[in-house]
Amino acid sequence: MTWTYDDIINLPHHVSATRPHMSAIDRAAQFSPFAALTGYDTAIKETARLTDERVKLDEYMKDVLNDRLQIIADQMKEHPEISITYFEPDEKKNGGAYVTAISTVKKIDEYERVVIMTDGAIIPIDEIISIDGQIFETMCDG
User: Fold this and answer.
1) Is the CB of residue 102 less than 8 Å from the CB of residue 52?
2) Is the Cβ–Cβ distance between 92 and 86 less than 8 Å?
3) Angle made by CA atoms 100, 92, 90, in degrees to the nearest 5
4) In what helix (H) or strand (E) does residue 114 lie, and over which residues does it extend?
5) C-alpha distances in Å from residue 49, one per residue of 45, 46, 74, 92, 138
6) DSSP class of residue 2?
7) What residue segments make up the domains of the chain, in order of their start?
8) How far is CA 86 from CA 11, 41, 75, 83, 102, in A?
9) How far is CA 82 from CA 8, 48, 59, 71, in A?
10) Bigger pLDDT: 40 vs 21
11) Which fold has domain 59-141?
């Protein structure tokens, strides 16, 4: 019984006299996926990325935040650690993300309406939704 490749099965492997041997990595690279639409995958991921909606604070909460900023301003020399949660708008699409910065306050700039933290974070006052810290817990206890 004869098989289809019986005539060539035992021949030696061909080695080119004019072309160098291709490494296994270069040979594998020939079969790597081809992206016909450059950037399409990135655009799909960006579209699918979720953002949060900005929370609108009522007047009561705005007053509470203003009171807490005043307490921080009055006790800034004691360098209390503060946790400020604020909205950071997304640069590429509508919405954004809520970020919490935990540090001590370096300066409250009323003119620019920002809180500058000692770690370099600059937080827009109008984007703040909560301010917490040990400083407020001790004031409520007394």
Assistant:
1) no
2) no
3) 15
4) strand 114-117
5) 6, 5, 41, 10, 40
6) -
7) 59-141
8) 74, 31, 21, 10, 11
9) 79, 34, 22, 11
10) 21
11) SH3 type barrels. (2.30.30)
